[in-house]
Design a protein that fits this description.
- The chain is built from ten helices and 13 strands.
- It is α+β, with helices and mostly antiparallel strands and 314 residues long.
- The strands form four sheets. It has a six-stranded mixed sheet with strand order 1-2-6-7-8-9, with helices on both faces.
Length: 314
């Protein structure tokens, strides 16, 4: 089983009315860790009401509120270039309103940013446990950093006691059948202390591993960034093959009838494939599909119009 198809099948099986699913997201603070699959549970409708796009972390963490507008330079504790970019994106995406006074730019939130994230689950997909690669080191990094509330290993293999002994005790294990969508919980994950400091693995060397302490505020900021990216990105971020053999299933997976499985268009499709038949990519509306299967909202009403007119009360 190829990891790409396994990962997409798992994302489709996990998607639901009370949680968001995304994939291939940065799960680090100072290092370089990419999480295969991320599941976010919480008050998603509260977040969905603001915008369908990512809200910059700097804008969320700024001293800009919903009341009186503030001069933008006084509201940020970061590099001015980052602050200016955050203001532009927040205004463009409906989280900030902007006004000019005496040649200065003032900003105000259109809605208070909700405390919407209850639980974040990181899933490492490894359908074949006989080829673990850096699996153990990756999972130990996720546990020691504690950026997410829980960490899970998902596999298609039969899980032995030897497999379990090679991964941290805090990591949960699922056995997932991508054909049937059935999921067996082999071991429940243990909750991680996300509200405290952590240790991040930076780089491994023969006989030595470089690590770096991470503060609780840094973890909190990285969790906000991770949740925002998961909300905005989703998991249907792949391209559909420009081939007549591509026949997407109900979840929108890029299923190839000739190969009999989902395929990655950038690596497996083209004139070199024996079953290739040039055609336009299938017209899949991934936004509509995601909206119908999760609490993500592609076109929220937003709050900008409700706030317009407050300038009269300055």
């Amino acid at each position: 089983m190829r990891e790409f198809g396994f990962e997409l099948a798992l994302c489709g099986a996990l998607e639901g009315d009370e949680r968001l699913v995304s994939r291939q997201l940065g799960g680090h603070v100072h290092g370089r860790r990419i999480l295969d699959t991320v599941v976010v549970a919480g008050d998603i409708p509260a977040r969905a009401a603001i915008t369908s796009e990512r809200i910059p972390t700097a804008a969320i963490e700024s001293d800009v509120g919903t009341g009186r507008a503030r001069y933008w330079k006084d509201a940020f504790d970061c590099h001015p270039d980052r602050a200016e970019r955050a203001v532009e994106l927040a205004v463009e995406r409906g989280f900030f309103e902007r006004e000019r006074r005496g040649g200065r730019t003032y900003v105000r939130q259109t809605a208070r940013y909700p405390d919407w994230v209850d639980r974040v689950t990181a899933i490492e997909n490894k359908p074949d446990l006989d080829r673990p690669g850096e699996l153990e080191a990756q999972l130990r990094t996720d546990v020691s950093l504690a950026l997410t509330d829980e960490v899970v290993l998902a596999t298609a293999d039969y899980v032995t006691r030897a497999h379990l002994n090679r991964i941290p005790d805090a990591v949960g294990v699922w056995r997932f059948d991508p054909d049937s969508g059935e999921r067996e919980v082999v071991r429940e994950p243990e909750p991680l202390p996300t509200d405290g400091p952590g240790i991040e693995r930076i780089e491994g060397h023969p006989g030595r591993t470089d690590v770096r302490p991470v503060t609780a505020p840094e973890i909190a900021s990285a969790r906000t960034r991770l949740a925002e990216r998961a909300y905005a990105k989703g998991w249907r971020t792949f391209d559909y093959p420009a081939c007549a053999q591509c026949s997407p299933d109900d979840d929108g997976l890029p299923y190839c009838a000739w190969k009999g499985r989902p395929v990655r268009a950038s690596e497996e499709c083209g004139a070199a494939c024996g079953g290739y038949e040039a055609s336009d990519p299938p017209p899949v509306d991934t936004d509509t599909l995601r909206a119908s299967r999760s609490p993500w909202e592609p076109e929220p009403d937003g709050y900008r119009r409700r706030q317009s007119g407050l300038d009269r009360f300055r």
